[in-house]
Automatic annotation (TrEMBL):
Pfam families: Surp. It comes from the Eukaryota. This is SURP motif domain-containing protein. InterPro entries: SR-CTD_assoc_factor, Surp, SWAP/Surp_sf. One of its GO terms (molecular function) is RNA binding. One of its GO terms (biological process) is RNA processing. PANTHER family: RNA PROCESSING PROTEIN LD23810P, U2 SNRNP-ASSOCIATED SURP MOTIF-CONTAINING PROTEIN. Residues 1-40 form the SURP motif domain. SMART domains: SWAP. GO terms for cellular component: nucleus.
Length: 78
């Protein structure tokens, strides 16, 4: 899923979250403190780090990734 979110953007993620709201396989998207969610956000962040020269990447990073990282990881980005 991460590859699709990187390629298609946050609207794709929102669409999946809306469609899979009751699907246990996608529960990690909604449980912000779960290890699976933290891993998902970290993996998304690490992929986005590779292409920081693209403006959309900055938007995704600042508004859709960093707010969900635990403070210990977020502090390492600045």
């Amino acid at each position: 899923m991460i590859e699709f979110v990187v390629r298609e953007g946050p609207m794709f993620e929102a669409m999946i979250m809306n469609r899979e709201l009751n699907n246990p396989l996608y529960r990690f998207l909604f449980e912000n403190q779960s290890p699976a969610h933290v891993y998902y956000r970290w993996k998304l962040y690490s992929i986005l780090q590779v292409s920081m020269d693209q403006p959309i990447i900055w938007h995704l990073l600042l508004h859709h990734v960093l707010p969900f990282l635990p403070s210990s990881l977020a502090s390492m980005t600045g």
